[in-house]
Write a structure and sequence with these properties.
By secondary structure, the protein is mostly helical. The chain has one domain (about 15-180): Cobalamin adenosyltransferase-like (Hypothetical Protein Ta1238, Chain: A). It has helices at about 30-50, 60-80, 100-110, 130-155, 160-180; strands spanning about 15-20, 25. It has a two-stranded antiparallel ribbon. β1 (about 15-20) and β2 (about 25) form a beta hairpin. It is globular, with a radius of gyration of 19 Å.
Length: about 200
């Protein structure tokens, strides 16, 4: 169990931080960039949860909240895995697993049964939780890009890539599904469309 007695340590004042295992690296190191974006994503998931009162279906709202709470725990596990130096921190056993990837695939399949096939891409917007889920999706994609860049230089766990890839898809499907259960129309992209009103 992690024990935090003091938030500030002054150890990072010169632009370096410690990975799990004790190795010091610059704060713009690809590994720090990767787990920092996972932390950003986790904060956005918290924003989604804080706005779920806008979803009228109480039973579904509670189930989504519990699911996102579990995903926040998984994201912290992922951050811990990414923050671990692969050479000196091997005793750290926390990380994402194949079972979580499989669960997300099953979750998306279940939600997709309630959804009509898409005829166009959806635009970000709608109720706050839906808009924040779009932001989760895009930050998750950025996290994936940073993880791929890290993986070209250093060792990462075998399930890190699949996990972050499925999660971005899951945020997209969840946004569609919440719009459906809320009775909202999806905002679809109309290629070449977009006519603004007259401003006089």
């Amino acid at each position: 169990m992690v024990r935090i007695t003091k938030v500030y340590t002054k150890q990072g004042d010169k632009g370096e931080t410690s990975l799990v295992g004790g190795v010091r690296v610059p704060k713009d190191h690809p590994r720090v960039q990767a787990y920092g974006t996972v932390d950003e994503l986790n904060s956005l998931v918290g924003l989604v949860r804080s706005t779920l009162d806008q979803i009228p279906a109480e039973q579904e709202r509670e189930r989504v909240d519990q699911t996102l709470a579990a995903i926040q725990q998984w994201l912290f596990d992922l951050g811990s895995e990414l923050a671990t130096d692969p050479k000196t921190g091997r005793e750290m056993k926390i990380g994402v697993k194949a079972e979580q990837v499989a669960w997300m695939e099953s979750w998306m399949d279940t939600m997709n049964r309630d959804l009509e096939p898409l005829k166009s891409f959806t635009l970000p917007g709608g109720r706050l939780p839906l808009a924040f889920l779009h932001q989760c999706r895009t930050v998750c994609r950025r996290s994936e890009r940073e993880i791929i860049a890290l993986g070209r230089k250093e060792e990462i766990g075998s399930q890190v890539g699949p996990f972050i890839n499925r999660l971005s898809d899951a945020f997209y499907v969840l946004g569609r599904w919440l719009a459906k259960v809320s009775g909202d129309d999806e905002i679809l992209w109309k290629p070449g469309g977009g006519t603004p009103p007259e401003w006089k």
